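Reply to dn_fold:

You asked what the input looked like. This is it:
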Amino acid sequence: MNSALFWTLASRVSIQAFSFLRVVILARILTPYDFGISASTFIAYQLLDMLTFTGFTTALTAHKGNFKEGYPTLWWSTFIRGLILATILFLFSDSIGDFFLAPHHLPGPPEKPQSQAEGGEAWRLRNPTPTAT
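and this is what came back:
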């Protein structure tokens, strides 16, 4: 099998496997509210990532021969691109939250319902109070 094809395939398979594993772990750890916020953030990041794809890594795996002189350029371009994406996400976080209809002015999950008719029992089961020992 061609070496570039093997490494590209191995990279794609491992990225998909780790993405699936990350979703499973986050779904078990986070509350539905927090999981929704993290999913919205991930969607926005993936959109920016897709729009700013440079192709340096693809060119590196397809290049035959010694490419050691290109490693610093690849690293710095990926690092600077990551900084730019993080800055864009930070600066436009309110707009992204409005797009996903997330109330950015609330610091946490919705308030605790007062009565069982409002879902109080289900809320209590999902968010148990710590017991003093």
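Residues 8 and 61 are 7 Å apart (CA to CA).
Hope that clears it up.
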